[in-house]
Amino acid sequence: MNIVFADVDGTFQDFGQTIPTINIDAVRALHQQGDHFVFVTGRGYELAQELLETTQLPCDMIYGNGAGLKMANQAPQLRNCLAHVSCQKIIAALEEEDMFYFVHTDKTILVNSVERYQAHFMDLHQKFADELGEKGIGIMKMKEAFFTHDCQNVTDVATYLRNHPDLQVVKVEIMIADDGEKERMRTKLSSSEVFVFESYQQTLEVVNPLATKGTAIQNYLARFPQAKSYGIGDGENDLPMFEVVDVSVAMANASDTVKAACQEQAGLCKDGGLGTYIFQHIIQ
């Protein structure tokens, strides 16, 4: 049996773009020959579940960069969430630096009132435009609309969490337009209590050190000790995945650092490189 673990954004689907048909066809072909395809994504549960419902693919899913597991036809399970005390320390550091951040919980995504962050959004809009052109402009418009309308805007995130100790914190995300500031904050936030890594464009994520794609995949593979495993991805948060699979595959749109960590390479995400790789190397 083969098990293919694949990232979503930048691997299975280009951000905000239509999923290449060949990717969906490849997943179905894998299942038809008795193999497994598992989404391994940094997305929270709701966005990840939306992907499954849209594609109608009967896949298992590791979400929240390893904090959550959703087996097909079973209820989602959260594990290795970020301790509230650790989360409060991270929030205090971010507030001190006046950084834009939002907190994923098992119930909602919390953000301080977005009116506070207009200067941050202006800088991010410019950065996305400079780096990605018209595509970046569209992505950042979608993100700002998401923060404004789809997240729960509160007056004070730290106080809200203190008043709701029942909430499970999946991760904290920070968006920073300046690359130097981003790296400085990565260093400042890093500790033995948390794992800090770069995910999508201009974004840092803070999670429980055990909530990585690598740890989640190892736990998943314990059910299938004889399986041959593949890991396909494009980002820094995919590196722990590459370390634990039998065959690591970087997308052509991945950074040179990610490519250097992999054994093989697939084509561009936008061209259906994932599906093409599966058909060429795994489908019999």
Automatic annotation (TrEMBL):
<protein>
    <submittedName>
        <fullName>Hydrolase</fullName>
    </submittedName>
</protein>
<dbReference type="GO" id="GO:0016787">
    <property type="term" value="F:hydrolase activity"/>
</dbReference>
<dbReference type="InterPro" id="IPR006379">
    <property type="entry name" value="HAD-SF_hydro_IIB"/>
</dbReference>
<keyword id="KW-0378">Hydrolase</keyword>
<dbReference type="InterPro" id="IPR036412">
    <property type="entry name" value="HAD-like_sf"/>
</dbReference>
<dbReference type="InterPro" id="IPR023214">
    <property type="entry name" value="HAD_sf"/>
</dbReference>
<dbReference type="Pfam" id="PF08282">
    <property type="entry name" value="Hydrolase_3"/>
</dbReference>
